Amino acid sequence: MINNLNILLPEIFLTLSIFSILMIGVFMKNSFNLIFNLTSLIILLTIAIILNGSNNVEKIFLESFTRDAFSNFFKILILISSLFVLNSSKNFILDNKLAKFEYPIIILLSILGMFFMVSSNDIILFYLGLELQSLSLYILASIDRDNLKSSESGIKYFVLSALSSGLLLYGCSLLYGFTGSTNFDLIANELGKENTGAVFAMVFILVGLAFKISAVPFHMWTPDVYEGAPTSITSYFAVVPKVAGLAVLIKFMLIPFSKILMEWQTIIIFISIASMILGAVAAIGQKNVKRLLAYSSIGHIGYALAGVATGVISGYESAIVYISIYVVMNIGAFSCLYLLKKDGEYKENISDLSGISKKHPMLAISFLVILFSLAGIPPLGGFFAKFYVFTSVVEQKMYALAIIGLLTTVISAFYYLKIIKTIYFDDSAISFDVTKNKFAQLSIFITCSILLTFFLYPSVLNNVVDTLFLN
Amino acid sequence: MDFPILSTLIFLPLVSSLFIFISRGQKNNTSAIYISLFSSLATFILSLFVWYSMDYTSANFQFLEEQSWINDFIKFKLGIDGISILFIVLTTLITPICIISCINSVKDRVKEFLIAILVLETFMIGVFCSLDLVVFYLFFEAGLIPMFLIIGVWGGPRRVYSAFKFFLFTLLGSVLMLVAIIAIYWITGTTDVTQIYEIKIPKEYQNLLWLAFFSSFAVKMPMWPVHTWLPDAHVEAPTAGSVILAAILLKMAGYGFLRFSLPMFPLASEFFTPLIFTLSIIAIIYTSLVALMQEDMKKLIAYSSVAHMGYVTLGIFTFTKQGIEGSIFQMISHGLISAALFLCVGVVYDRLHSRMISTYGGLVNYLPKYSFLFIVFALAGLGLPGTSGFLGEFLVLTGTFQKNYLVAMLATFGVVLGAAYMLWLTKRVIFGVTKNDQIKNLKDVNKSEIIMLGILALLVIFFGFYPVPLMETLNVSVDNLINNYETAVQTNGLN
């Protein structure tokens, strides 16, 4: 037993580090900078530990915890994206007086929750991980507690998310009732037989998960929370929990619900189409960049779900590739927002961007690359993400899903073009203090280079993702 | 294959645009103009070298390059034949002319403009070189980004509307083509064009796939009734943008029909011929009539482009040697003539900032050189014998007469209408009474304008009398295209 603990090494390390830096925070005054840097260090070390460990499939604690290539890939993706989100938003945090020492610690706690989510092989462990993550996110949403909007978004998120957690838990208990087990593998075996009750359980679980990844029709919280929460938190919301949520969704499809493919496929197709359409149409009228990105993220989740809806491994792979490129694009987009600082205040209306191409040509061209990539125009990375998803959708002969999906990309291109129009075609209004945020600039540079050069080696990501499903 | 000459051709403009991007710190734009001019001329010379060194007597694709690309199953495959080399040379010829024209007409953000033009050149050459459907789609769509910016940033007062219309129309048409490309991949197991030619797509899929490709090409061509983006885009775009749009971007669709629709879906092409004929005839007659009534010179030329593209689609879908050769010739000559006409409008627009026909009149008294060149291109535009415009239309009509008398007669009627609007335009702009006092103070064409327009005028007249170089290049490839088409139709007719 004790020999197997190295399987849990990343989680153990993360937990112990969280406790230690919490102590530092409690006993030292003005320790935000120290804790922030330690947090980055901890994230880097955790990445190192995971990369150093093996990718072989091993299950411990009565097979409730799995360590395999799949979970390791998602853990690394979560860590890297958190690292970028945190560091590029540091100036924003300091400028908006959010520099409380709890901030990075709570982020680490939510990462820990996600680790258990993606590694769980048991619905109880899964639920505990999910709740650890959600509780951290509630606090993060309202971290700017003197700000009315931030508090409101925290409460809103808490109430709705608690409801969805309740539904999810209800689904879990139904699943336990109908199959007599909480273990994913045993549930899968049990569902091989005729089992109508389990379909109800699956619907509830899907509702809970759809809420967490903000898929239509459970997306209502997204625009308000995105707008209300401080931008640094919004960027975290837009990237990291989505990755974990999609990982868990794929895992549910892959193991416990693999035998009731037909039933859940219909639901996912519906959710996917609804998300793509709403994400495209509702974003058109938005004036706030964060709100617009909220709707755009709903649309993107729709595309990723189109890959999941195929119900085959190649489809899941394409969804994972999609979410990875989505992460890159969103980190870039939010890093651009951190540069829009004017007299200590961060602008977040689309109209504030007008004509920045004249005063800040580099920022403008980065925005251009990221937005065209979000719209899925070749030769940028976003195109390949869509291409892979729709390749696997068409492979399953789901032509209607592919055509609706691609038509919504045309509609969504319209609002991305609207931002580009504001940046390039309109006359300039504001000049921002762009140069003062080095890490945000670095992350913009990295994301843009990835998106621009992706077409040279478009199968790099696929080759990695291919190895996740070997077992 | 030893030296990747096609990749060099494609990426040379892109690399030089990077140099301009780096050199952006400097105040004056001369270095940027020299870099871009030099690199585009180098590309032109390289493409001439490719043309010279290729083997016309073989119908196979030449200068093949293959590189594993997406997941080992989709290859980055390039190659050219007698048809594509002409479009490549046209592209590389028009680009330096555009760069010269922007010396006079673009005053604001010159470096960005040059970068956009060079990036666009890369994508355009890529379209004509690609032998893989995904690679083709990549270049075909990527061209939207620089063109959107060229119209939107440097365009006229309604540029935003036009840029959006251009982008969304084209994108809407193209996404259906993307679905079709993916579907072809799952039907045949490859997206390599040469392999698909041999595998032959089953009959039951052909019609739908053909329609999906058609939706993209029809918008890009543009065919009636989805042509409405073109006049807007032309009117608002800066001169160089209009030139590239008319001379090259429209030709991508005609090229697409020849390279993909015809050989990959021969049965569907046969099946949909009446549709194409109808739309082409409507385009020729209706848009010619619309062109007659335009008050804006650029709009008039834009509508005349739609009419000329009508001949192109007509010629392609006659499936006769004359028809197809004629439409390719028509595309090349329209590339030269419409480019020249837009440049002519640009010349007077730079001086008076008006495109309205009513502003001008009696230019011949004050700008004799300009008037001479304008008349040459207007006559070429209406298809006067002795200019390249005549040969294309003549061959297309010869081909059409072999297939359908009624269609051919209606199309011939369009030639008369074409003469009407072109001559009327010339009469109102070049001759007539001088209504505007400002015209008396106008300067005649300067050196750089004479160079641009003179080269085009020489080429238009040269190819009008001596089309052999073009026809010789085309000959075997077109023969091969028609043979493959006919065997496909015959063998499938038997089954």
Structure notes:
- The complex is a heterodimer of chains A (471) and B (495).
- By secondary structure, chain A is mostly helical.
- Helix content of chain A is 73%, strand content 2%.
- Chain A has 20 helices and 4 strands.
- Chain A has a two-stranded antiparallel sheet with strand order 1-2. A two-stranded antiparallel sheet of chain A has the order 3-4.
- In chain A, β1 (58-60) and β2 (65-67) form a beta hairpin.
- In chain A, α11 runs antiparallel to α14 and α16 (361-375) packs antiparallel against α18 (399-424).
- The longest helix of chain A is centred in the middle third of the chain and has 32 residues, at 148-179.
- The two termini of chain A are 23 Å apart.
- Chain B is mainly α.
- A two-stranded antiparallel sheet of chain B has the order 1-2.
- In chain B, α5 (133-142) runs antiparallel to α7 (159-188).
- In chain B, 77% of the residues lie in helices and 3% in strands.
- The A-B interface holds A 357-358, 361, 372, 377-379, 383-384, 387, 390-391, 394-395, 399, 402-403, 406-407, 409-410, 413-414, 417, 420-421, 424-425, 455, 458-459, 462-463 and B 24, 69-72, 109, 112, 134, 137-139, 141-142, 144-145, 148-149, 152-153, 159-160, 163-164, 167-168, 171-172, 175-176, 178-179, 182-183, 185-186.
